[in-house]
Structures are given as C-alpha cells and as structure tokens.
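W.,

You were right to be curious about this one. When I first looked at the sequence I had no strong expectations either way, so I just let the prediction run and decided to look at it fresh. Below is the sequence, 242 residues in total, followed by the output.
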Amino acid sequence: MATHPPASPVTSAPTPDWRSVKGIDAFLAVALIAVIAVCVRAIWFTPVDAMLGAAQKIFYVHVPAAIGGLYIACPLLAISSLGYLWIKDERLDRLAEASAEVGLLFMGLVLVTGPIWARTSWGTWWVWEARITSTVFLWLMVLGYLVLRGAVETPESRARLSAVMGGLAVLLVPFVHLTVRLFRGMHPGPVVLKPEAPSLPPEMLTTFLWANLAFLMLFFALLRIRFRWAGLRNAVTALETA
C-alpha cells in the first residue's frame, strides 16, 4: 500500500506585535522624570537673574532644546540620510525619519520658548533677526522633509528622495550657529561656550548642565521609540503588500 508523505504545514511570516513598542518605556520614564526634576530645580532652587528676572529661567529649556534639535537631530538626519544613499540600509532611512521628527519637536520647543523670553528681554514677542529667522527656515526644511516622505508612496523612491533633502538640511546648522557673530542682532551670544570663562554663576551653570543631560536623555528616549515604531510599521506594510 502506497504511503504519501505528510503535507508540510503552510508557514507565514509572524505578524509584528505593536504592543512591543510601548508608549512610555523605562528609559523614557526616567528621562521625563529628569526633565521634570530639572524644571523644579530651575524654578524653585536656582537664583533669579538680576537683569531678566524670572523669565530667564526659560533658558534652561530653550538652550537644551536647541542643542538637541539643531546640533544633534540635524547632523544625525544628514549622516543617516547620506549613509542610506551609500549602502541602501533601510535602518538608516528609519533613523533619518526618527531624527527628523524628534528634531522637529525640539526645534518647535525652541521657537515657542524663544518668544516668551523675547517678550521680557526685548519688549516684543518676535524679531526678524538672523538667528531666529534662520532657525525658522531650518524648522521648515525639516518639516518639508517629513512632508516629502508622506507624499511619496513607493518605499525606495521615498527613501532616496528624502535622503537627498535630509542631507541638505545640516548645511544650514553652521550658518544658524554663526549668525550672532556674522550679523548684528538682538539675540544674545554664547554664554557657556565662550572663548573666555562662562558668564553663568555656579548655581545657574549646574542647573544648565543638568538640564542638558535631562533633555539629551529625553531626545534619545523619543528617538529610540520612534525608530522601533517605524520598523514595525514597515514590517506591517511589507506583509500587506506581499
């Protein structure tokens, strides 16, 4: 009597589990606690500036957000974009996208806190001077990068075209940094990273350094979650189009 081999079971790729990307994981929770602690220290336990008053305390949010948005997110966006154009690694495309979104958030925080500080220091909410205008333009470039990603449906074309634009965004960062030296404006120059000694008293400098550490943790915590979410999204898209 002839026997037939058992039919092999039909296997399919596992469905990505969205629950693996938590809205708030341990790292993000620690980062949020650190940011809240720094804000409490800045408001209640850091001396008030003699000239600017209590409004100067926005400095402890404004500057760390600018460091994260301009000096970390934009270079990371450019490096990962150019890296994708070179080796075509999909993970670099996801890293560029995540960097752009978190950077847009941090630069948006800069553009929100800046006018609050300006209203007290300069007597007006907004001044079209070089540092502020160039920061707005850079924010719009990063926003345009994300809009471009949403407008192109083909994954390969989307990654390639957005990588070109992402690589160009970083070119504006040195210009933004040098505007206070190249142009006369109302925006203050460097306070901590001065050629001579920092202008901040020890108590303010300590709070500022802790603020930078807290916002740096927040940046990478958000970047980590956004990167993992993009990976799951791409996996689901690949399954749907297979």
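Here's what jumped out at me. Confidence is low (pLDDT under 50) at residues 7-13. And, maybe more interesting for your project: Residues 75 and 100 are 10 Å apart (CA to CA).

Coffee later to discuss?

I.
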